[in-house]
Amino acid sequence: MHRQMNIVILTGAGISAESGVPVFRGPDGLWEGHRVEDVATPEAFEANPELVHRFYNQRRAKLLDPAIQPNAAHLALARLEKESAAHVLLITQNIDDLHERAGSENLLHLHGELLKSRCTTCGNVAPLLAETSTSSKCQACGNIGTLRPHIVWFGEMPFHLEEISSALRAADWFVSIGTSGNVYPAAGFVSLASHAGARTLELNLDPSQTSDSFQESRLGPATQLVPAWVNEILG
Ligand code: OAD
User: pTM here?
Assistant: First the structure.
């Protein structure tokens, strides 16, 4: 009997770019007009929590704009998961929910989720569609001013690393889509999968920091490259 094939896919900001969600490392080096250290670190939240709340409130409002929808690349990955005989695990560095909206179910958010809050006192993680501030109340423990975005900031530990490490060790395919390869540990996943014997493929608009680590790199927009690759796999 044949063992089920394992496909592990890593996505980054590039897969959501054509849906209208800006990438992190734009030409100006800023993320939506801010230096990353001013909005995406625990130190920034400590120093200026209102600014950080406001920044993520804006990102959340934008994500909930009806104009922002999953694109052909998100949809193709959801189709792969449903129609392939292989086991497909999708790991995303993105904090948007476009993979879920496209229908992907076996999905891990490495860097957290924009549409969730976390209480720094009781640890409760809750769905979040509204704005938060330093006067927001935790619905679980009732404390005021203890909510933060459920997002992994620089200097914090990404989520699901044990599960991801096992999946990479068992991977037959590792495919990276729309990521610049600047941020570890995600940038190191290709090496782990390679050492475990996986075939490795990169789909990205430009060459990334880690392109040389892949057996194959295809350059172009995700909405073209991803559906084409999924069609190849599904035969
Ligand atoms: P980046 O903004 O660093 O890189 C986006 C990549 O997508 C670049 O290599 C682009 O060439 C590529 N790209 C842009 N448009 C594309 C398109 N239409 N199709 C295909 N590729 C396209 O974003 P990430 O690599 O995701 O972390 O960034 C990684 C992490 O750094 C983020 O998760 C975030 C950030 O700081 C945290 O917040 C912890």
Answer: 0.96
